[in-house]
Design brief:
Layout (H helix, E strand, L loop, with lengths): L3 E6 L8 H10 L3 E6 L9 H8 L10 H6 L2 H7 L2 E7 L1 H9 L5 H8 L4 E5 L3 H5 L1 H12 L3 E2 L3 E4 L5 E5 L3 H15 L6 E6 L4 E4 L2 E3 L6 H12 L3 E6 L10 E5 L3 H11 L4 E4 L6 E3 L9 H7 L10 E3 L3 H6 L12 E8 L3 H12 L3 E6 L11 E2 L1 E5 L3 E3 L3 E2 H28 L1
Parallel strand pairs: 1-2, 1-3, 3-4, 4-5, 8-11, 8-13, 11-12, 13-16, 16-17
Antiparallel strand pairs: 6-7, 9-10, 14-15, 17-19, 18-21, 19-20
Helix pairs in contact: 1-2, 1-9, 4-6, 5-8, 10-15
Bound molecules: cytidine-5'-triphosphate.
The site of cytidine-5'-triphosphate has 15 residues, from helix 13 and strand 16.
Length: 419
């Protein structure tokens, strides 16, 4: 799950590289909407950009059709990041002075999203005191810059003025998003997927968890700038972009990976951790006959089980039990097939966590492995019923709620300190 990048292309020769830039941003998981200035159309065609990005290409501020379909204010608001590449000396000057006389500059004035510029121009223009002052103004307002770099310039001269290389711009997009999101500067650990508990080299105890929900939460937290470690049991889900994955198999391995990854500000236990593991993991495949004989019956066998560590409870009680810093928010799931809310309340208390996302995992709900989820957010003070929605949307809603809660906590602390 990537971000939505509004790519404003202004009229420098480097504009011819922007279909490649759009493609690489999309490879990184983002969606790209190109906006072309009039002079940029001399260097790159709207058709090339539309073909690569799969998006409508915007350009004419005064097109009534565009305004009807997608007003410039909405274009500005829908972006997670606005990238100006190449950024000419002219557009940098307009941005510094708040001019808005075409679609790109109007969006730049209206957007609240982070703005990244990739300047490209003749070295003398870049060195000029006016451009230096404009850059200073923009940077002091929080605009981030990538490049320019030294090299051969379109004008035949050499110097500092080439647009930064495309992989560097793509990396700068990632770091700008990370640095400006509401959860930037925070760390989260998310567990996801099932665990596999071996019985012998070919058999294991597992459950129907797909990892979809945990992975969606990890992706949504990362999108808000959080530094996320995803500790996942075996799953075919792709690893979300910008998330550090620790792949594990068993509950004991998951516990160790979580402990190694602490401390964190946020812990979300979305994994369906097996409560039990086989007391013995046989080194060789257990033969039907052997098992039958040893237990004195050929049609019946028993496997002895040992309880696994409770990862959620361990994390929620750090400080109380093992010392160390407990995450500010410890969030668990309650996978239930009956008395969903009641059982979730009991789990909230017994595990010592802050929130429980309760869901009904009975087979008719198709929650395990399915695409949708119906959540009840249970806290000590309240129960909130979320409508049935995609697991991706549940992830986004939860990440937003976490960001709001941490921001409110910070405000309360600041307020408390001042009074
Ligand atoms: N959990 C955990 N470690 C375990 C078992 C569960 O971290 N060994 C976490 C899950 O990730 C989830 C929460 O605890 O966030 C509740 O899991 P659930 O399977 O619903 O409950 P259990 O604790 O296993 O209790 P029960 O099976 O009796 O319902």
């Amino acid at each position: 799950m990537g971000n939505h990048i509004l790519l404003i292309i202004t009229g420098g020769i480097a504009a011819y590289k922007t279909p490649e830039l759009a493609r690489r941003l999309m490879d990184a998981g983002h969606t790209v909407t190109p906006v072309l200035s009039e002079s940029a159309t001399q260097f790159v065609t709207p058709l090339a950009l539309a073909s690569v990005s799969g998006s409508k290409v915007y350009g004419d501020l005064f097109s009534l059709t565009d305004e009807h379909e997608m007003g410039h204010i909405r274009l500005a608001r829908d972006a997670d990041l606005v990238l100006v590449a190449p950024a000419t000396a002219n557009v940098l000057a307009k941005m510094a002075h708040g001019e808005a006389n075409d679609l790109g500059t109007t969006i730049l004035l209206a957007t609240e999203a982070p703005v990244l510029v990739a300047p490209a121009m003749n070295w003398a223009m870049w060195d000029h005191a006016a451009t230096r002052d404009n850059m200073h103004t923009l940077e002091s307002r929080g605009v981030t810059t990538i490049g320019p770099v030294a090299g051969d310039l379109a004008c035949g001269e050499e110097g500092m003025g080439r647009m930064a290389d495309i992989p560097d711009i793509v990396n700068a997009v990632a770091s700008t998003l990370k640095a400006t999101g509401p959860l930037s500067g925070t760390r989260a650990i998310v567990t996801s997927g099932p665990t596999h508990e071996p019985i012998d080299p070919v058999r294991y105890i597992a459950n129907r968890s797909s990892g979809k929900q945990g992975h969606a939460i990890a992706a949504a937290l990362a999108k808000l700038g959080c530094d996320v470690t995803l500790v996942s049991g075996p799953t075919v889900e792709p690893t979300p972009k910008a998330v550090k994955l620790i792949a594990v198999e068993t509950a004991v391995e998951m516990m160790a990976a979580v402990e190694q990854s602490l401390p964190a500000d946020i812990f979300v236990g979305a994994a369906a951790v097996a409560d039990w593991r086989a007391s013995e993991n046989a080194p060789q495949k257990i033969k039907k006959d052997t098992l039958g004989q040893s237990q004195g019956a050929s049609e019946h066998c028993e496997i002895s089980l040992t309880q696994n560590p409770d990862i959620l409870k361990t994390v929620a009680t750090i400080g109380a039990t093992v010392g160390g810093r407990r995450p500010t928010l410890v969030i668990g799931f309650a996978a239930e097939t009956q008395n969903v809310i009641e059982n979730a309340r009991t789990k909230l208390a017994s595990k010592g966590c802050d929130w429980i996302l309760a869901n009904d995992v009975s087979s008719e709900q198709d929650t395990f492995g399915g695409l949708d989820n119906e959540i009840h957010l249970v806290t000590r003070a309240s129960v909130e019923d979320w409508p049935r929605q995609s697991k991706l949307d549940v992830g986004r809603k939860l990440a937003g709620r976490i960001a709001d809660t941490l921001a409110n906590n910070a405000k309360t602390r600041a307020g408390g300190g001042a009074s």
